[in-house]
Design a protein that fits this description.
The chain is α/β, with parallel strands linked by helices. It is built from nine helices and seven strands; from the N terminus they run βαβαβαβαβααβαααβ. α1 packs across α9.
Length: 248
């Protein structure tokens, strides 16, 4: 098992890529605390995982990620229960596609508060705990739009460009402390959101992907497992594209 007895926090872990990552971590032997925005969704996710993996050490937390004090308290509770935090996956985020002329300051702030400030708050709280052991792994969910941009919804690609810069800079700063920081940039992934998109919209997107399929949440989760494991012990500051594309 690649993550045996590691303690991991996965924000946005109640569905989609986050849920797949929690499940993949459990399979690899990790003790996982999944973050969610609502108690009911968190409880439902934990119940589903415990039913499938009766012996799994999995629980939940629901701090407001844009509030550092709430995050810090939740992370300290994890440390108290499990003895530390080895892995943090900053996966919680929000996407939207409002045209620029209709953008509001409130909408921009909403996206940045979760996608950027939330990662900052969680990373800061985790580092305070990881430093005690002299090691740890922080993984951030970026996006293909951090490379290509997108035609509307300006705050989302802006936030993901910020995630890449945060990842690289924090990796340089925390490397001497034994803490690795990397990101995964998913491409178009077959989550609940994509299942609502019409077939005539999805098919042209698939046609542009050399591997000729959408990504599955498990594809992204596998990348997180690798980067969290000792197999990636000499990798830091990387944004790994998992999008089925070929690049030079």
């Amino acid at each position: 098992m690649l993550l045996k007895d590691k303690v991991a926090i996965v924000t946005g872990g109640s569905r989609g890529i986050g849920f797949a990552t929690v499940e993949a971590f459990i399979k690899e032997g990790a003790k996982v605390v999944l973050g969610a925005s609502r108690e009911e969704t968190a409880a439902k996710a934990v119940a589903a995982l415990k039913e499938k993996y009766p012996d799994a050490a999995v629980s939940s937390m629901i701090p407001k990620l844009s509030d550092y004090n709430e995050v810090k308290a939740a992370f300290e509770k994890v440390e108290e229960e499990y003895g530390g935090i080895d892995i943090l996956v900053n996966n919680a985020g929000v996407s939207e596609s409002t045209p620029f002329e209709k953008y509001t300051e409130e909408l921009f702030d909403k996206v940045m508060d979760l996608n950027v400030k939330g990662i900052y708050n969680c990373s800061k709280a985790a580092v305070e705990i990881m430093e005690k052991k002299g090691k740890g792994v922080i993984l951030n969910t970026s996006s293909m739009v951090s490379i290509s941009g997108q035609p509307s919804g300006i705050a989302y690609p802006t936030s993901k460009f910020a995630v890449n810069g945060f990842t690289l800079s924090l990796a340089r700063e925390l490397g001497p402390k034994g803490i690795r920081v990397n990101a995964v940039a998913p491409g178009i992934t077959n989550t609940d959101m994509m299942q609502a998109v019409p077939k005539e919209v999805i098919e042209p997107l698939i046609a542009r992907i050399p591997l000729k399929r959408l990504g599955e949440p498990e594809d992204i989760a596998n990348a997180f497992v690798f980067l969290a494991s000792d197999m990636a012990d000499y990798i830091t500051g990387v944004t790994l594209c998992v999008d089925g594309m070929a690049r030079t």
